[in-house]
Amino acid sequence: MSQNPKKSYLLPEWKEEDYRQMNEWLQRHWITEVEFLIPDLTGIARGKIMPADKLLRIVKIIYFFKGRCLEIA
């Protein structure tokens, strides 16, 4: 009996090429900081600013662990 790995429907498939393209796009457009909204515990949207290179590291970590974390949940 073969086991089929669980497929995550929350996050699309991630390839190293996607990460490289995202990094190139940020550099080509001279984007050094990224602004985004994150809800706090009460649901109020709060604006945050993050360096672009830190955002890339976080994205890479999320996609690396996505299968492992979603299988636990």
From TrEMBL:
Entry superkingdom: Bacteria
One Gene Ontology molecular-function label: glutamine synthetase activity
Any one GO biological process: glutamine biosynthetic process
SUPFAM superfamilies reported for this sequence: Glutamine synthetase, N-terminal domain
InterPro entries assigned to the protein according to its UniProt record, in alphabetical order: Gln_synt_N_sf
Protein name: Glutamine synthetase
